[in-house]
Every structure is written in structure tokens, then in C-alpha cells.
Amino acid sequence: MAKPTQLTEGPIGRNLLLFAMPILAGNMAQSLNGSVNAIWVGRFLGESALTATANANNIMFFLIGSVFGIGMAATILIAQAIGAGNTRQARQVMGTSATFFFGLSVVIAAVGWALSGRMLGAMGTPADALPLAEAYLRVIFLAMPLLYMFAFLSAALRGAGDSRTPFRFLLLSVALDIVLNPVLIFGLGPAPKLGIAGAAWSTLFAQAIALAGLLLYMRHKRHLLWLGRHDMAMFRIDMDILRALIVKGVPMGLQMVLISLAMIAMMTMVNGFGTDTAAAYGAAMQLWTYVQMPAMAIGAACSSMAAQNVGAGRWDRVDATARDGVAINFLMTGVLILPLILLDRWTLALFLPADGTALEIARHLNHISIWSFLLFGVTFVVSGVVRSTGAVIPPLVILGLSLWGIRVPFAKGLMPTLGADAIWWSFPTSAACAMVMSLAYYRWGRWRKAHMLTPHAKPHPEEVAVPAEVPAQPPSPVADNAP
After folding, report:
1. What is the DSSP secondary-structure string of 261-327?
2. Residue ranges per domain, the chain?
3. pTM exceeds 0.85, yes or no
């Protein structure tokens, strides 16, 4: 059986960076894929088509966020179990969460497919883009269970300390999507000409192949988290684990829902300024996905590393993980922001006509808003460390206040005075407030006394199976310290 990777040993900064790099590279590959798709759509199908995909992708992000927390909760539970040397519990978490996660994703995808037109209409999608957005979104909903399961397996593997395997199969998915996109959009060779829906079908086919490949790889390597036909009992729902997944996962998922709802609210406000401004905002968001990537990668790495060290009772390494994560995030995010400011005329022109009004609008809003992601990165990293113990409500409250107590009201309240600039300035304003609140909670909050599983759900000593090559760690003190 493949060994779990211990993140409780060795130099923290170096290991954190090495663990985060495949995650960052994977995020870059996904964003590059999205940008290539946007280039095909925006340059060859027009600004209305680009607006359509921007609106549809906001809804897709919302639906992914609705089950995102279950995957994060499973990741933390697996990482804590690995850190404590409890491989049996890690596999139990894998089975229970896979059953629940897949069933829920199918239901959400079915409901979303049926209501896609109404969702797009409710968020004020421009009339010329609405039919295109619906054609694209319906196919994306068919791919949702595949997208969910691949993301879930990737997160679970990271909880076991493995960030390289998900990256390899993500690259396969991205390469297939890039190749299939023009083939299905324009009907090259024997393929049918599907237009904007072809971009969604290419995502579906690529994701299906990559997911199948990842499952076969785990089976071939007899990975710690692989559950075969002899492990079918593991797929039965364990109520203690399910309770933790729901109680801890729902608030983490709600964070993604709050973000996506805020994105939809911002997109709705932007749509009110017309197609040029909506297309400019969609193009700027393509650049922002790259700027967010270091924070997302370092935050995910910090969460896995901190959770394993929580399981091992290494609180000194938990604090060091947060410090090193913030420092690495500032460096990497800053390096990305500067060239995207200096060269934004050329980068934004990849998605917009060079002689159009939308390009200048995009440059203007980018200069105002892009700096907010430096501050966003601090919040993302600190919240990842805090959540690794099971403290999920305070980060949710902080995020809710920054988005719905500051960003959205700021934009709406100042639009009569500042026009669209009120929307752009709301990003750095809310990001600064979120950072201050997150750092304050990290310093003075009670997150170190939180727990994922209730004390009675902890396994008996005889149930703990520690691989011979991994030194046994003391039981996690987290549940015992619960208030």
C-alpha cells in the first residue's frame, strides 16, 4: 500500500512550498484552460458569448461551492487522522464522504440543470447573451458530478499529503479540454459544430477521462485511500463522521456560497452598465484568477499541513505554518500583480477587441481592484490554518461581514455618486477589512480549542492501524481540549 506523506516533520517553509507548488501549477493550468476557452469564445463568437460564459461560470462556481465544504471537511479529517497515525479512520472518512458527496452532487446538478434559465434571468444576464449562456450552462450541469468527484478526490489526496498525483491528472484534463475546445466549437473534422455549447462538452469529456484515469491509478498503486471491492463496507455511512462532515462542512461550504453569491451580486450590478462593462469585467476576472492562485495554493497547503500537525499535537508547527504561509503568499502574489498592471493593455486584449470601448474600461477597473488580492491572500491563508482544527464558524462570519456587510453595500451605496467605480473600489475596501478581522481572530480567538469529531467518536486504541514505516504519533489532543 502506498505510504501517506507526513507533513509533521522537516523544515516547514520548504515543505510548505514544495507541497503547494503542484497545487499552484494545477491552478495555473486550470486558469490557463479557462483563459484559452475565453479567447476562443470572445474572439471568435463575440462579446455577447463572452458575457454569457462569465454569467454562467458564476452560477457554476456557486453550485460547486454548495458542496465544497464537504470535501474540505473530509480533507481535514483525513489529514488529522494521518497526522495521528490512524489510517483506519482516514479510510472510513474517505468512504463515508465519497458516498455522501457523490449523491449530493448528483442532486444539485439535476436541480441546476432544470433551473439554469431562471438562474441566469434572475441575475440580470443581458438579453443578447441569455440564450448562449443557457446553452453553455446546461451542458456544464451534466458535467457537475464529474467535476465534483475529481475535486473531492484531489482534496482527499492532499489531506494524505499527496499533491502531485492530483496535479498529474489535472494536467491531463486541461490538455484534453484545450484540444477538444476548438474541435467542438467549430466542428473540425468529423466533430459536429456546437458553438458555445462545444466549450462545455469539451470540459465534460476531458473531466470524465481524467477522473477515470485517477481512479485507475489509485487502484493500481493500492493507495491508502483506495477503497476496492473488498472495502465496500467502508462506503456505508458512519453517522459520527457524517455529522462532522455536515456540522463542519456546511459552514465551510457556505463560505464558498457567500463568495459566489457576492460574485453574482457584483455581476448583476455590472450588467446594469451594459455589455461593454460586463465584458470588461469578465476579461478582468480572467486575470484575477491568476492573481488569486498563489493564495489559494498556499492556503490549501497550509490547511493540510496544519491539520496533520493538529492531529500529531504539534502546535508549534501549526503557528509556524501560518507565519510562513503569509510570507510566501505576499511574495508570490506581489510578483504576479506588478506585471499584470504594467502589461494589462496586452493581457486584456487577449479577451477583448483591441479597438473597443470594453478594453479601456477593463484597464481602469483592473488598476483599482487587483491590489485587493494581496490582502485577500492573508485572509485565505490564516482562515485555512484556523479551519484545520474545526473552527469553521468565525471565518464564515468574517467573510459574511466583509462581503455582505461591506463590499455589496459599499458598491450599492456609492453607485449613485461614483458610478461603476463604486463596484471596483468595493474590492480593496472589503479585502482590507477581512484581513484585519482574520488576523484579530487568529491572535485572540479560541480556534485552538475547536475539534472536528466529538470526543466519543474517537476510535479505540486497538482500531488504530499505523504503517510500519511511519512513526506513531501521540493521539490528537484537539477533541480532549474541546470546550
Report:
1. HHHHHHHHHHHTT-HHHHHHHHHHHHHHHHHHHHHHHHHHHHHHHHHHHHHHT-HHHHHHHHHHHHH
2. 12-452
3. no
